[in-house]
Amino acid sequence: MKKVMVGNHAVAWGAQRARVEVIAAYPITPQTQIVEKLSEMCADGTLPARYIKVESEHSAMAACIGASATGARTFTASSSHGLVYMHEMLHWAGGGRLPIVMADVNRALGPGWNIWTDQNDSLSQRDTGWVQLYCETNQEVLDTTIQAFRLAEMLDLPVMLMLDGFYLSHTAEAVDIPDQDVVDEFLPPRVSRHKLDVNDPHAFGALVRPDSYMEMRWLQQEAMRQVPRVLETIEADWNRLFGRSYGAVESYRAEDADLLLVTTGTVTSTARYVVDQRRAAGEKIGLVKIKMFRPFPTEQLRMALAGVDKVAVLDRNISPGHGGIFAEELRSALYDLPNEDRPQIYGFVLGLGGRDITPAVIDEVIERTKQGTESEREDLWVGVNS
Amino acid sequence: MRELRLHGRGGQGTVIASKLLAVALFLEGRQVQSFPMFGVERRGAPVTAFLRLDDAPILLRCEISAPDELIVLDATLVGATDVTAGLKPGGDILINSPLSPEDFPLLSARFRVSTVDATGIAIRHGLGSPTQPIVNTAILGAFSTDSGLVRLSTVVDAIREEVPMQIEANIAAATEASLAVRRMNAPEVARA
Amino acid sequence: MPDILMHKTAVRGVPQVSVSQTSTLVTRTGSWKSIRPEYHDRMAPCNQGCPVGIDIEGYMNLLREGRVEEARDLLLAENPMPSVTGRVCHHPCENACNRRFLDGAVAIHAVERVLGDLADASPAAATGALPRVERVAVVGSGPAGLACAYHLARFGYRVTVFEAALQAGGMLRLGIPEYRLPRPVLDRAIARIVAQGQGVEIRCGARVGSDPTWSELTSTFNAVCVATGAHVSRALDVPGEALRGVQRGLDFLRDVNAGARPSLGRHVVVVGGGNTAMDCARAALRLGAAVTVAYRRTRDEMPAIAEEVEEALREGATLSFLANPVEIVGPAGSVSGVVCERMALGEPDASGRRRPVPTGERFTIAADTVLTAIGESAELDGLPADVTTSASGMRVEALGGTNRVALFAGGDVTDLERTVADALGAGKRAAIGIDRHLRAVANNENEATSADALRFGGGNVSAAQWTGRDPIRRVAPVNEVVGLDDLNLHHFARVPRQDDAHLSTGAAIAAFDEVNTGLTKDQAIAEANRCFNCGVCTQCDVCLIYCPDAAISHVADGEANYDVALDYCKGCGICVAECPRGALTMTRDRA
């Protein structure tokens, strides 16, 4: 069933189709229409889940942790400062290996107070042990919400999916809501390996001494290592049932390119438009979209980018004192490629705090990359006169 | 691809109008994308919404700065704000007003202007309150006639699908407005 | 779609999450404890404070759950006329309510009134045959007499009430003005008492002592209860009391309550600070007079119900404090003024109130009418000759017994507290005393049951407990009143007390319409939701939720509300500390 809907509602429908059992959320700013829609669904019976209102995002994640520990399929959503307020509990969910799924509407952090999109809210949570998936369209948002549960529950890892504030969250476009019975075939009920159960009580979260702590972290990292392979099988299965797939990394018109744009989120779509124009003009330009940021898809990116002359990374984020986060991680991933295969990498910082990224902005990125007169080591800002 | 911009005031249903139009166009098999002006919303304050439509998948995910057409839900915005900013020369403007297009000489010199008394129609059909009528469905009915981009019947289908209450009154308002559009008598301005 | 396990879940015996390998059930934390929690229902302060002996906490609990009819019936088990007490009682229950320390006492009187009006609107059908063959006479149809008759009828006796006046109700009808107690309300309450059980007959216009005589009564009936009240206004004992325009306040009220609208002149002075004084003042205001109340102490010492004082002030009465009338003056035989001596407060007297002492300063308050209301006494002359009395009334035992076998007494005629609520409680005690006596006679049992055994938590006696039909299950009750320190107020949100609706002052003093129009049923239920249920487990699950060892669980249907798994309860006391209402206590472990 196709419907025109905003990205926030696409998330809600994804959670509904995934048959989430518990939703805990803080209902006030910076909350989104996601939980508003879910609360309506809980109220009218469309979604027979327990909806827990809490007094803060920190508490929302704490409630999710408790619910997930009992074996319930658990969901929440937040944005910007709300997500950042969860930070401590995100570690607990990650370290507790709880397959919670969360949607984050990417919005900038203040001050200056700003409600528009960028990725600093979620990227500053990168070391909390959550899988991170960045979406490009409302359809991808809905599909990823459902897929995230299967990924999370297979590997006992929490999964965070991101959608750009306004560009997806408030933009309406046609989205296919998959049939429930097919989703049920794709996503079986959760079976938890460790469960808080009064009839079989165990102690959870007790002191872990130095002789065991590293093993637990090693196991967490081991599970993260499995994510690309597991996501691939999940996407193959989704493609079989619904005829759509996205990939942790996607190459677009990258064949024989000598310049590749590296993008995430909705910038990807506008960049596809620019790539199409450039290709039509005979230029060998393509793009590589990174959907999965954690775990970082090092292998896929080495395959996608090896041998290309120039790479321009579009970072809608900034690690102050370092640079664009995707560019930095990408440099690390490609560092030990043979010299002849290793591209020149230009890291552009743009679109912060919701500044519009138009085809003209992407054209500027391409032109500056082609010129190649700026430093590869520095973060190159677009649209800021300095 | 065509790009539309809608101007109204908070409470008139401007954002809903862009959504309704997107649904109607989607029902006709078009690719659509509709969104409000990114920012905060306040009742009574000027509100802007946007719509893209195309037969191919829409790749652009940025704001619309040079629309092909405008729908103005509140004539007091003309003059009070620069509603025609970025509008392509010769572009279409549909204004909610009991006046005729010639009464907007500054606009009709450069653009193709049409008017419809959507407020009067909305009040007659009891939509919103007399002081705060909800004019979005009426003006979409007028838009279907004026633009030829969308059929009245699919606007009606979209109303049935999306409007939560007073469905029949909204349909009646859209239908009445579709017959009440006033176009410019002047010869067509050359289109860009 | 079979998902195969694709990652390691343990390494070197360490699991991926910090979870104990064995069940925590192997750790018998119960072995650590030396003390443990026990559930004990205790006494709510409202219940203890109620002279009628109503299970207020119990009916609030039922009402909170929306069980309106059960709440009404529990109230009716102890109080024959809640629609009346809901309007006129001085509600010591509210003065004791622990909620007053948070956001205002529960408006118990208003809830009682709603339930009482509900009861009067649909009186229960008569139950048919009366199981007891004995007959009882009650002398006086005021609250004490009616309460005695009501409970005796509920116990299964046939009761005849003798009333000297032409209508039943005693001081409720003669003394309390209609704007506080509309007569239709009183009539409906009495009608319900008469209707219930078919056991009560009221004979009006029958003055015991002359017709019938006391000896006729004692020979005809198996037991007699004296509840003749206190109808004698105390005299001021100052010069000028015989002047025209000086009237006993009670006589004035009796006339007004009978429908008279006497002409009082411009200025009325009421002498006294009790409820009769307030009734006189407010009635006089309604007759168009300017009213000054002269009282020899200050507002803090006034025995009148605080709300009555406030109402009198709001309606325009002037209160003159520390004013002790020493002479009533007037030329030509009619009153023109009251000469008062200014008093000062000295040391506390026997009642605990500071004693007024004369200052020598004198002043005169202009008056066309003086109404005296400094207290009433019981008329003891007409009683059977050999009953024991004190200066202020008949002497009675805990269950109303006098020095004469089969003669009981209650209410204002005795030397106990003189309020409507106390009278209702005394009538009930006398009824229980009579029942105990007659059963003992019939079965040759001795009268061993003590009144104290019927006082759960030290409050008034309970008819429900006397009949063994208390519908409220009490968990291991202990006779302790729950104080503020026993509660955990963190579990209660602040919810303001709902105030009664009132007529506007202008409308109030224009006529004798009821001033306080009370609460709605929904408001009453909202008030019941404010009740802390002090000392009584409401199965709120706080103990269960807070127990760190999950040692507390529900019991399907047993003696207790919860089961404490003693193998795991380590005696930490968190459940006791968290219990919102003091229904849990720690005790030494018996194990």
What is the CA-CA span between the terminal residues of chain C? 55 Å
Secondary structure tally: strands of chain C:
25
CATH topology of chain B: Pyruvate-ferredoxin Oxidoreductase, domain 3
**Beta-strand share of residues of chain C:** 15-25%
The domain tally of chain B reads 1
Sequence stretches where pLDDT stays below 50 over 5 or more residues of chain C: none
Q: Give the strand order of the largest sheet of chain B, numbering strands 1, 2, ... along the chain.
A: 2-3-1-4-5-6-7
Q: Quaternary status of these chains? A: heterotrimer
Radius of gyration of chain B: 15 Å
CATH class of the largest domain in chain C: Alpha Beta
Which CATH first-tier class of chain B would you pick? Alpha Beta
The biggest sheet of chain C amounts to:
5 strands, parallel
Describe this structure in words.
The complex is a heterotrimer of chains A (386), B (192) and C (591). With 386 residues, chain A is of the alpha/beta class. Chain A has 13 helices and 15 strands. Chain A has 2 domains: 2-242, Thiamin diphosphate (ThDP)-binding fold, Pyr/PP domains (Rossmann fold); 249-381, Rossmann fold. In chain A, the strands form 3 sheets. Chain A has a 7-stranded mixed sheet with strand order 3-2-4-5-7-6-12, sandwiched between helices. A 6-stranded mixed sheet of chain A has the order 9-11-10-13-14-15, sandwiched between helices. In chain A, strands 1-8 form a two-stranded antiparallel ribbon. In chain A, helix 7 crosses helix 9. Chain B has 7 helices and 7 strands. In chain B, strands 2-3-1-4-5-6-7 form a 7-stranded mixed sheet, covered by helices on one side. In chain B, strand 4 (69-72), helix 2 (77-80) and strand 5 (92-96) form a beta-alpha-beta unit. Chain B starts with a strand and ends in a 9-residue tail after the last strand. Chain C has 4 domains: 23-41 and 537-588, Alpha-Beta Plaits (2-Layer Sandwich), CATH 3.30.70.20; 45-122 and 474-530, Orthogonal Bundle (Fumarate Reductase Iron-sulfur Protein, Chain B, domain 2), CATH 1.10.1060; 135-231 and 378-449, FAD/NAD(P)-binding domain; 236-376, 3-Layer(bba) Sandwich (FAD/NAD(P)-binding domain), CATH 3.50.50. In chain C, the strands form 9 sheets. A 5-stranded parallel sheet of chain C has the order 6-5-4-7-20, with helices on both faces. A 5-stranded parallel sheet of chain C has the order 9-16-10-11-12. In chain C, strands 13-14-15 form a 3-stranded antiparallel sheet, with no helix packed on it. Chain C starts with 9 loop residues before the first strand and ends with a strand. The mean pLDDT of chain C is 91. The interface between A and B is medium-sized, with 24 and 21 residues.
